[in-house]
Amino acid sequence: MPNTLAVTLDDVLAAREVLADVLTPTPMELSRALSDRTGLEVHLKCENLQRAGSFKMRGAYTRMSRLTEEERSRGVVAASAGNHAQGVALAARLLGIEATVYMPHGAAMPKLAATRGYGATVIQVGTTIDECISEALRHEAETGAVFVPPFDHKDIVAGQGTCGLEILEQVPDVRTILVCTGGGGLLAGIAAAVKALRPDVKVVGVQAAEAAAWPASLAAGHPVPVSSMSTMADGIAVGRPGDVPFGVVAELVDGMETVGEDSIARAVLQLVERAKLVVEPAGAAATAHLMDLGQEAAERYEGPVVAVLSGGNIDPLLLLRILRTGLTVAGRYLQLRVRVPDRPGELAAVLTMLAEQSCNVLEVQHHRRVQGLKVSEVSISMTLETSGHDHSARVVQALRDRGYTVDPL
């Protein structure tokens, strides 16, 4: 039976030749922490360390390198929340092409700055990738610039698929590959490469639950847009799967999973703390899925497992907020309100008791004007640093054993 897929292994191999002098394989790191957590051998494919900070350079350069001289003279236009923008901007600089990129309001400042730094003209419109795509297509129609889509083109998918070739070479006995998924370009490319060479390898996409267009689309048999999205993982916040990736994913991919916002935050923290890798929320989705499963991962998947870290372009301020959320989810921040008798020395007694419980007190606020308080009471709001959920539970119980009323914040 002839291969009717939009992207084949030959396409990916051809893309690899195009990229040979531009990109080098990104590192593959064994994660002892995730391996211990899941009972599987887990490796991390570090596309966060790729040129321009994500896998997007693979597809963008592949597509743009194949433009004719006449097309190059007209320039290119793209739409992106950041990673594709940087990939297009860098590829354009390397190829000597003028680039205009539409980015949403609210895009991370480092992504905006990097895109401009590579020489592209940045125009901010709307709040979603889909709105930016609409404006980029209008720009194409009005100016003749060539639209370089973020995922919905054969050359883009083929370029992203070179990541799959590297995975097979770096972990030859891999059995499962987990891929962060938005429009589907990376997932489709990896699947096209991997399934042609190793059909026994399971390839699974992972989406942010608050921007998950793929499960409903796969169930319907065609791309279905989501009505709304709200996720910190802006890099995979795509309202509708691409038509080109959809055919490949529907044919080859073994499953599609979703992860919540708290799980993503916890995964970003895990990667910073244990793997020493800065990864943006979109790039941590596959890791979040493994962390959600824990020891159940060994029942779902065969190892070795490769989790793709698709990007590392994150605003430091967002990273700070995410790390705080991750610490809270992991039980490392404990926020509570304690009602104590309003008498001299009581606050000192509470703080002394917390020191005895090996807590680090980060913030303390003393309130007398709180609804529901008795005249003889005060309320103390505290943020504490603990070693985890068990430690937090012991601290709360110790406070209650002393007779204090304790409420979580």
Automatic annotation (TrEMBL):
It is an enzyme of class 4 (lyase). Its EC number is 4.3.1.19. GO terms for biological process: isoleucine biosynthetic process; L-serine catabolic process; L-threonine catabolic process. Its cofactor is pyridoxal 5'-phosphate. SUPFAM superfamilies: Tryptophan synthase beta subunit-like PLP-dependent enzymes. GO terms for molecular function: L-serine ammonia-lyase activity; threonine deaminase activity. Signal peptide: none annotated. Keywords: Lyase, Pyridoxal phosphate. It catalyses: L-threonine = 2-oxobutanoate + NH4(+). It comes from the Bacteria. Coiled coil: none annotated. InterPro entries: ACT_dom, ACT_ThrD-II-like, Ser/Thr_Dehydratase, Thr_deHydtase_catblc, TrpB-like_PALP, TrpB-like_PALP_sf. Residues 335-409 form the ACT domain. Catalyzes the anaerobic formation of alpha-ketobutyrate and ammonia from threonine in a two-step reaction. The first step involved a dehydration of threonine and a production of enamine intermediates (aminocrotonate), which tautomerizes to its imine form (iminobutyrate). Both intermediates are unstable and short-lived. The second step is the nonenzymatic hydrolysis of the enamine/imine intermediates to form 2-ketobutyrate and free ammonia. In the low water environment of the cell, the second step is accelerated by RidA. Belongs to the serine/threonine dehydratase family. This is threonine ammonia-lyase.
